[in-house]
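Readers of this paper often ask what the protein records in our data store actually look like. Such a record has a labelled line for the sequence and another for the backbone structure tokens. The tokens are whole numbers drawn from a learned vocabulary of local backbone shapes. We quote a single record here, exactly as it is kept in our systems:
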Amino acid sequence: MDGISKNAGRIRAFLIGQIGKNTAVASNPISLENILSEIYAVISAAKELIGGRIIILECEDSEDLIKLYERHGFTLIATLDPQQSRLRTMYTHVIER
């Protein structure tokens, strides 16, 4: 993940946690692309100050949700026992926008 050393013990990363959208709002115009665009803008500014190469997020263990994030460039991190958690961890590289 670090892109420089295969033996890296640590990686600077930005954790964005869980992303949500209020589906109770009728005709909610906000899309995942809108949300990610805002996130990427803030992370790009932070990267200039502190570095970092990876963005990590957690999502529910839902095949549809995982596929949605994969379509937006995220990769699922394999876990030792995915049955143990209702949350899955995914990552993508910080891309200059």
In short: The mean pLDDT is 84. The helical segments are 32-50, 63-71. Residues 32-50 form the longest helix (19 residues). Residues 13-18+28-93 form one domain.
